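User: what does the whole thing look like in 3D?
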Amino acid sequence: MAIETRDLLRSPRGAAFSKIGYLRALPEEKVVEFLNGLFRLALEARESGDWEAVVAHIEQWEGAALAALGARMQAPPVDAVPWAPWERPLGSATIALITTGGVHLADQPPFNFQAEEGDWSYRELPRTLVQEQVRVAHNGYDISGPQQDFNWVFPLHRLLELERAGRIGHAADVHYSFMGRIPTKWAELQAAAGEVAEKLLAAGVHAAVIGST
Amino acid sequence: MARVLEEAGIPTVQVMMFEEMGQKVRPPRVLHVRFPFGRPFGEPGNAAQQRVVLEDALRVLETAREPGTVVTAPYRWRREDYGAILAQRAATPTAPA
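Assistant: Here's the predicted 3D structure for the full assembly of 310 residues, as structure tokens:
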């Protein structure tokens, strides 16, 4: 019986499997090496009761998978890294959150995540946001997370806790959400980000924390 | 996106789960977490973890001195006690950098 090695890596969708699947991009002998190692280590772990070596093996190979993915990724050309110095005490700063996770309010139009060119629009999320208002429109990651608790990708409630504790000055009144799968329309995304930047400046926001997905 | 905001004068810090993308895109400040995709602030229902990661991101904002700073968080997926980490932080407050 012939087995297609890559068929053994047809993992379920879901965050736990989100990185290891990229091993399919590696040469077949590497995939075999991963699977043989996992097989051996799992049986040894059953004997010893210590599964740490199994986890380490998975994480080591996740690293290899991501390195292979990174090597073939497209990205817009970059030159010097821009820099806005941080010079104020955090306790007097207004902080905004930005997520790329496709989060939007129920009464806002969803992101068009199925468009071939992606969707570079953004949505405004108020600091009064509650879970019942939240919808998630994205097909590039396991959205079951924010569908249960949007703080997994957009930790607004944690930011409000930091405000109450005096660790930050203020959480901004308005935060922003994008849908991060934008394969090529980088100029359009830059223009949208520029609009958000202007709005943040007008609102007196001092810094932004961006959560990738 | 981080670069656009930074050019407009808004300091940013980006939480990323994919170090190689950070190397290609080069945001000004990055907190790199070795978490699965889609879990930038951590595990399901783990508010303490969300808080720790957010605090760490803000710490990178405060302490980064060079454009393109990447700090890799030490947390092992599903094997940390974030309640203990928060308790330890509350007990030993650090001075601002």
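In plain terms: Helices of chain A lie at 28-48, 52-71, 144-148, 156-164, 186-202. Residues 1 and 140 of chain A are 35 Å apart (CA to CA).
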